[in-house]
Design a protein that fits this description.
- By secondary structure, the chain is of the alpha/beta class.
- It has four domains: 126 residues, Response regulator (Rossmann fold); 190 residues, Alpha-Beta Plaits (2-Layer Sandwich), CATH 3.30.70; 101 residues; 90 residues, Homeodomain-like (Arc Repressor Mutant, subunit A, Orthogonal Bundle).
- It is built from 22 helices and ten strands.
- The strands form two sheets. Strands 2-1-3-4-5 form a five-stranded parallel sheet, with helices on both faces.
- Helix 4 links the parallel strand 4 and strand 5.
- Helix 17 crosses helix 18.
- It is globular.
């Protein structure tokens, strides 16, 4: 789904184009309206816009001036100019500046539709470009990724000295130690048939992210074969001063908007070009280097708990939501290699693989002491997950904890093994239940908000802000969970409210239209009749 913004200072033109484009059934477009260039800039600051359909002559700011602002914020955005007066010089300037088309209003709806389809095709072609893979091959190196991984892991585990500009320069990391940064964590859900050579595509995924975040100071590291971390900052000003000095600066506002808005493009390109399912979680606030370890653990936890089916997620983590705060760094398990593998299987929800791995590990030691080391390594890992789940639910099963951490309480190795497996099964079941519950709560929250704000802003961008999800992911998640589209739910809610107001009040048609979110009574009439085969007035008389 692409987002299209219509910009014109004539309200009837914007509303007419909105209705016309909304009728193009085979194009999945999320439509937005702006009745002035300033309003358009507000939308561009809030969310990623893929296509802009704009008038050229507008008071306060011309379409060409708006084009420059769009290019600075969303360089991949396609711009279509629509004007009532043909001026060859203006048209040439628009095309040279990167607009995809220049149309006269007198050319009609078909010309506008063709231009929109042309813009959509151009966006599709960009994501399918093999240039991403070519760049990935060029940027791969033998040693630097390993150095980057070791360094970042030491930072996340609080084992590294303080981050300095000298160290960053030594590792060719284009970030500043004295600046805040925006962390983003990605997870690749590899297909079952993926081989070792396929795993090299991790570099291609990182390169795709680097291409999209090219306007920013960007650094990424793959921590294992499933997870990668991206760190982003605004570029320093040309005069050498730090653009990220203050969190509330314009540079940071643009950076946060760009980073969050571009997540869906990265995910979409990975799916189309690499055939890989990628999930991403981004922190909505810039953080200091010293807080990165705790923030990373909290974001990783958000990715583990997930929503829906837990694949192709686009999540935002907000430290201020519901009193949430960055977690303390987790202690390293006693058996690092063993625990790291089992922890990964726990995080991925791979219950059968986890059971197989536990059986394999516990069958290896012959001596009781060695078995005890393995047992307590696994038990410690499960204890961390168990107590975390109990803390979230407010429950505490002291008996279960005592039994888990007391190897001598079991009559045999097999009995001890079965307890480990039962505990793991309980953790998987609890996590799945929590995931389902959280998803249902999110859908319920959306429905309540929609019905309480039928006359207000119910754009996908606004709804995504309510639940802290990327707009594209919210659309996919909603359809995945309900089988329908958010736009259809909103339309049905408006129809139901309109029927209620028509039968229980004496409000005029234009007053009802305004209450349920229609710009004009004419649009409301057409919308109502299309669904019920009656005009609002005919429905009122019949009832």
């Amino acid at each position: 789904m692409y987002r299209l913004l219509i910009v014109d200072d004539e309200r009837f033109t914007v509303d007419g184009l909105y209705e016309m484009i909304e009728e193009i059934a085979d194009l999945e477009l999320d439509l937005y309206r702006a009745y002035a260039p300033e309003e358009a800039l507000e939308w561009l600051a809030r969310t990623k816009i893929d296509i802009v359909l704009s008038d050229v002559r507008m008071p306060g700011m011309t379409g060409l001036e708006l084009q420059k602002r769009i290019a600075a914020q969303w360089p991949r955005c396609k711009i279509i100019f629509l004007t009532g007066i043909h001026q060859l010089e203006t048209a040439q300037h628009a095309i040279r500046s990167g607009s995809i088309d220049y149309i006269l209003k007198t050319e009609g709806d078909e010309a506008i539709e063709r231009s929109i389809r042309k813009a959509v095709a151009a966006l599709d072609a960009e994501t399918a470009s093999e240039g991403f893979l070519l760049q990935a091959r060029l940027r791969m190196s033998e040693a630097m990724p390993l150095l980057h991984r070791d360094w970042l892991q030491s930072v996340l585990e609080l084992q590294a000295p303080a981050v300095t500009d000298e160290k960053l320069a030594e590792l060719h990391i284009p970030l500043k130690s004295g600046s805040l940064l925006i962390p983003l964590i990605g997870r690749i859900d590899w297909p079952e048939a993926a081989g070792y050579r396929d795993r090299a595509l991790m570099y291609a995924v990182q390169n795709i992210a680097a291409e999209y975040y090219a306007p920013l100071a960007f650094f990424s590291v793959s921590l294992d074969m499933h997870h990668f971390v991206c760190l982003v900052q605004p570029h320093a000003e040309e005069n050498g001063s730090d653009a990220a000095e203050a969190e509330g600066s314009e540079a940071w506002a643009q950076t946060q908007s760009f980073v969050q808005g571009t997540m869906e493009s990265i995910q979409h390109t990975c799916e189309r070009l690499l055939k890989l399912s990628v999930s991403l979680v981004c922190c909505v606030q810039p953080v200091a280097w010293t807080a990165l370890s705790g923030v990373y653990e909290s974001m990783k936890k958000r990715l583990i708990v997930g929503l829906g089916s837990r694949d192709r997620m686009l999540l935002l983590w907000n430290p201020g939501e519901e009193g949430e705060k960055p977690a303390e760094p987790l202690p390293m398990p006693p058996l690092r290699v063993l625990s790291s593998n089992l922890e990964r299987l726990l995080e991925e929800g791979s219950e059968e693989e986890f059971e197989e791995a536990v059986r394999q590990y516990t069958s290896l030691p012959d001596r009781y002491a060695d078995f005890a080391i393995v047992y307590y390594g696994i038990a410690s890992l499960l204890l961390g997950q168990l107590t975390q789940g109990q803390s979230e639910s407010g429950e505490e099963d002291i008996g279960a904890i005592d039994s888990l951490m007391n190897l001598t309480a079991h009559q045999s190795r097999e009995a001890a093994l079965q307890l480990l497996l039962r505990t793991a099964a309980g953790i998987y079941a609890k996590r799945k239940s929590l995931q389902t519950e959280r998803t249902h709560q999110l859908i319920s929250k959306l429905h309540q908000y929609i019905r309480a704000h039928l006359g207000g802003d119910l754009s996908l961008t606004r709804l995504s802000e309510i639940v802290y999800l990327n707009p594209a992911y919210l659309s996919v998640l909603y359809k995945q969970q309900t089988g329908g589209n958010l736009s259809e739910y909103i339309a049905e809610a408006r129809i139901e409210k309109a029927k209620e107001l028509l039968t229980t009040t004496s409000l005029k048609i234009h007053e009802i239209a305004e209450q349920i979110g229609f710009e004009t009574a004419g649009y409301f009439n057409r919308f109502f009749k299309k669904r019920l085969h009656l005009t609002p007035q005919e429905f009122r008389f019949r009832e």
